[in-house]
Each structure stands twice: as C-alpha cells, then as structure tokens.
Amino acid sequence: MTTSHAEPVNGKLPHEPEKATLEGRNKLIGFWLFLGGETVLFGTLFATFLALRGQTNDGPTANELFHLPLVAAATFILLVSSLTSVFAIQAMHKGNRNSLALWLGITVVLGLGFLGLEIYEFYEYVKHKEFGMTTSAFSSAFYTLVGFHGAHVAFGIVWIGIIIGQLFKKGLTVVTAPKVYVSAMYWHFIDVVWVFIFTVVYLLGKVG
C-alpha cells in the first residue's frame, strides 16, 4: 500500500509541504504567472516615472524633496522583513507552526513600520513642501509608482495576517502550506520592487 503525498506521513508533513500536492504545485505555477503580470505593470510605472521625473512645473525637484535617511530607514525595515519571511519558510519546512506564525507576525509588524514611514513621508511632502498628487507631472508619477507599491505592501500585510489566523484555526497542513509559501513569494517580490524604487526614484533623484 502506497501513501498519498497529499497527507502527512506518520503525522509529519513532507519536507516541502507547499509542493506535496498537485493543487499546491498549481498554485505556485499560477502565482509565478501572476508575478509576471505584476512585473510588466510595475515596469510600465517605472518607465512613466522616468519619462516625467524632469517635469516639475516649478514645483519641488527630487533633489529638493527627498530625505534619504528616512527612506533608507524604511528600506532597511522592509529588507529585514524579507529576511523574517525566509525564517518563516524555514520554520514551515521544519513543521513548526508556532515558530512559523511568530516569524510571519514579525514580518507583518515590520511591514506596518515600513507603511507608517511611507505615510509619514507623504504627509511631510504634502503638508510642508506643497508637493501633492497634482502639483506636477513628476509628482503624479511619483505618487502613482510609490503609492501603488505601498498599496501592495498593505495588501500583503492583510494577506499574511489572514494566513496566520488560518494556521491557528486549521493547522499547518499541505493545504495551508502553499498559501504560506505563495505569500512569502509575494512579499519578496514587493521587497525587490522597493529596491528598484529606492535606486531609481530616490538615489537617482538625489544625484540629478
């Protein structure tokens, strides 16, 4: 008698439970296709920003506007959150639900910290530097690109929060494991996108 890969063996999960079932593998393939579409979308926003970044309409320029220490702090927080999501996947592969939930929770907290700094940054621009969405073509492109990424971070926070709830309700199984893995992939993706934003928008903006 053979044992189905869809069920734990002797109460234990497979080493890579996210790939233990056909449904789980299909979720991973589908999500890679989704990330391909997201990459094209962000690529379009980057191209638009690069085309419009010099059109300030007598408003603040990037060099006058950006405060790199604040953005660097936000970048550090988001990169650390990517590391904690790696620790979460390692805990999942060891079958440790509590450790998995802990690392996912830390990832959520760090994501909230990043989002808080971004909201504060936008507030400072609008309140003290009169840099709003409609100030110039540059401001519109900036808020669209960076704000769209922030919306992805907010979605990821909610998504991972829901998954943590499912882990305590349903346990760590070959059904919940693919959801954890896919959410971690998503989180890494938005971290990589932010590295490009930090480089293209902020660093290049400060050096002209």
UniProtKB/TrEMBL annotation:
Gene Ontology terms, cellular component aspect?
Answer: plasma membrane
State the protein's name: Cytochrome c oxidase subunit 3
Listed Pfam families: COX3 (PF00510)
Q: Which GO terms describe its molecular function?
A: cytochrome-c oxidase activity
Q: Does the keyword Metal-binding apply?
A: no
Q: What InterPro entries does the entry give?
A: Cyt_c/ubiquinol_Oxase_su3, Cyt_c_oxidase-like_su3, Cyt_c_oxidase_su3-like_sf, Cyt_c_oxidase_su3_a-hlx, Ubiquinol_oxase_su3_dom
Give the main localization category: membrane
Look up and give the membrane topology term: Multi-pass membrane protein
| Stretches assigned to the Heme-copper oxidase subunit III family profile domain | 29-206
Which keywords label this protein? Answer: Cell membrane, Membrane, Transmembrane, Transmembrane helix
Report the sequence similarity comment from the record. Answer: Belongs to the cytochrome c oxidase subunit 3 family.
Q: Which residues cross the membrane?
A: 29-53, 65-88, 100-120, 141-165, 185-205
